[in-house]
Amino acid sequence: MAWETVIGLEVHIQLATQSKIFSTAPTAYGAEPNTQASAVDIALPGVLPVINGQVIRMATLFGLAIDADIAPKSVFARKHYFYPDLPKGYQISQFELPIVADGHLDIVLPDGTEKRVGITRAHLEEDAGKSLHEAFDRDTGIDLNRAGTPLVECVSEPDMRSAAEAVAYARKLHALVQYLGICDGNMQEGSFRVDANVSVRPGGSTEFGTRTETKNVNSFRFLEKAIEFEVERQIDVLESGGTIVQETRLYDPDADETRSMRSKEEAHDYRYFPDPDLLPVVIDEEFVAAARADLPELPDAKRERFMAEYALGREDAAALTNSRALANYFEATVAAVGGDAATHGKPAANWIMGDLSGALNREGLTIAQSPVSAEQLGGLIARVADNTISGKIGKDVFEALFKGEGESADAIIEAKGLKQITDSGEIEGFVDQVIADNPDQVEQYREGKTKVIGFLVGQVMKASKGKANPKEVNQMMAAKLAE
Amino acid sequence: MSDERSIRQLAGDLAAKKLSAVELTDHFLKRIAAHDERLNTLISHSESTARERAAAIDAGTDAGTPLAGVPIAHKDIFCTRGVRTSCGSRMLDNFVAPYDATVVERLAAAGTVSLGKTNMDEFAMGSSNETSFYGAVRNPWHTDYVPGGSSGGSAAAVAAGLVPAATGSDTGGSIRQPAAFCGVTGIKPTYGRVSRYGMIAFASSLDQGGCFARSAEDCAAVLQAMAGFDERDSTSVERAVPDYSAALDAQGDDFLKGMKVGLPKEYFAEGLDDASRQVINAAIAEFEARGAEIVEITLPHTDLAVSTYYVLAPAEASSNLARFDGVRYGYRCDNPVDLEDLYTRSRGEGFGREVQRRIMVGAYVLSAGYYDAYYLKAQKTRRLIARDFSDAFDKVDLIAAPVTQAPAFKLGEKLDDPVSMYLNDVYTLPASLAGLPGMSVPAGFVDGLPVGLQLLAPWFEESRLLGAAHAYQQSTDWHSKRPAGFE
User: Fold this and answer.
1) HSE, side-chain direction, 13 A CA sphere, residue B68
2) Closest chain B residue by Cα to residue A138
3) Of the four, A230, A352, A419, B182, which is 20 to 30 A from B261 by CA?
4) Catalytic residue status for B150
5) What is the ipTM metric for this complex?
6) Domains defined for chain A, CATH in brackets
7) Catalytic residue at B475?
8) Under CATH, what is the fold of the domain B2-254+465-480?
9) Residues 243-282 of A with CB under 8 A from B
10) What secondary structure, in 3-state letters, does A153-186 show?
11) What is the mean pLDDT of each run of 10 residues along chain A (483 residues)?
12) Which of B123, B327, B359, B366 to mutate: most A Cβ within 10 Å?
């Protein structure tokens, strides 16, 4: 039987605020345990939460970016369960009235078609602390630094039909929140956490199968693998006559499998009710309008503009606009080249996605950490464009810039004497010498084996240490051989 | 005797150096030493820090503050830095707060000297002060009787003259009822008037800090220091606080003249003890004699208050008390075998029976399948009760009523009958549910036990409440009576 996969994703987006959602303690990652937990975070008797206004602004930006409704009134609710890293015995979240509802994200599928994924809701909540089991003999340590860190939980519709679609959606969301500057996107540190709700059903069926929720997926690659594993497991169970149990499963990247964590029978009754310590969040049109004015250009709009302004193909434009940092680097590079943006767009894209990306990957660096600045790269592209150096020499200059061997392309060209030889007298000298030194090849050419010209030109380039303008060498060689 | 002076007189004499803060503090510490073994009004004593603080005030540290050198006691629900804050519970018997509640901070900033922390029903759950882990408080008017609750320790301490004023908190009547039972003046301000930061939560949407003192005038002086917006409490209201004492001074003797005072007929119906009714009627006659216009009003949803309250308050309590889990502070059971055992025994052993009962009720009314029928329904009836009051205040300026159906009952009398205990709050719960300001003013005695007159005003009209009570206290002396043995 043909099975159809149905996937919905729940993504926890950690908001990049300075302080926590309900206290003034800082949110920085990696501090000594319990040094960033205030009286409110550890839930001392008598303390009260106070909402951090930044959080409301960020959630509003997010809602606008996914074309969702921003609730004029949303309500914080208490979600109760006992766990040592949950200091109050409840998590402050939003339940019946979330701040953001009914949005969507358009993704590009591997075959190039577009697909719209619905976003049911996105609500604000506080993170819990961490339980540390390793460092203590038979005991568990509690680190409450993370307790109270602001999160947006974004819940999609079950609109995705393959692991690849789920990854495309997650990547798009990941890029978007970084564009908005509301999340640092660091998946290893847990700033962007994806849970996958997966079910399968017979092809053509309109009813959903029983789903499982897979947690602990901290990279896109693992997301893809976890979903693929889970789909296969569910199909296996169903095809061998079994039934799927609604449960929470954990992905184990070492074993590349998902394992049962808890079943629905063990699920909590969270006893949600509106938090009486917090007033409803009221957002007026003025606030929304101000947030809208603050919205940066979003990835889709930027991609369209790059195609028009820089004469780029859809694929190049999409790749460059994947991250705001990369897009900014690209634009700064073209600006540094100077002149016509449409002319220099494609070479700049090639340099950035070719040599630069390769070098950065090799060194494990991000675009923000690039040793070659956009100004330096733009300067290099300008010298290739005006024939000061050839493309081939350009690659050498790029490597020199990457290694920090010079302040600019011009400085390196000057210092290493890489300036292209365009003086026809000088080129003629090299050509005559090569013709004189290679009588056999000249003879072959004149007998009609014209391909041998490539060898002769190569000899000229070699003799000029690559600096002779290849176009001029070609023309002159052809002319001389025809004499 | 120095404690016959009003708080304003004390503050004036202290500022004028006619009286030293050390002298005054010692006077009250001596009274505590002499009487509190019998009354049990204090859970924690701060003798040495009180003397140090008084000496510092005499040396000029708090010069210019309105209450410099005035002794006070805080209900043990308010966190006090460096002092045990038990909330009357074994759960917090070992808890020393690392910070001051806003109320404590503000009263200290106003120059008061804290003598200790007063006894209370465990987590403020009770109407007799008998649920305290530290034992019952005795009513100074008759020590076989309860002082009321939950702020029983504060009310009894003021009544016995152990301290001129004390803080309290009122969730369903926890200031007004003990004030009535102990014959002192108590005010519960409008919800949002006094910060809840640092006041250990029982039912967050109802809890409100207030105070006890001999007279309305004294309450005005203490409330002045407590009230006002606090950015650490999102439910506190950003609204200017009037000068209460100046308002009392300015109003003169004819404050009640022409004031429309409503008597809600539901509060005078069956259930009100006859002798208490006579005391209340006499008090109302005094209001009339001073020019008030008395009208009968109706608050038709009054009979829903007890059931509404006993759904909402336990619901919030079950949530607020979830943090007491034996993990970070407070009571932890011995040798837990696993996490479940740690939770179950720490909470089972740390909380008393009444607290556990309310947690169970609260968890039940919030659970899936019952939420709509109980919690949501109670929210709706709460709005009906509040609307009764806003309708009534369209017609009258003030509401007068009894605080309780009868004077104080005997220790142990209702301990095993929770429903009868809950019905004690039938006249105080509606105003709590509506968030209104209310007072209890001493109005007379029945068989030697005090009876309180309840006054209610529209939201944020504490000045009107205090003014009416003050005018009444100008021509009556019920508030200055002393229990025998505590003169």
Assistant:
1) 20
2) B338
3) B182
4) yes
5) 0.96
6) 3-290 (no CATH), 297-416 (no CATH), 424-482 (1.10.10.410)
7) no
8) Amidase signature (AS) enzymes (3.90.1300)
9) 269, 271-273, 276-279
10) EEEECCCECCHHHHHHHHHHHHHHHHHCCCCCCC
11) 94 97 93 94 98 98 98 98 96 97 92 92 97 82 96 98 96 94 93 97 93 92 96 96 93 91 74 97 97 93 95 92 92 94 94 95 93 95 88 91 92 83 80 88 86 88 82 85 80
12) B327
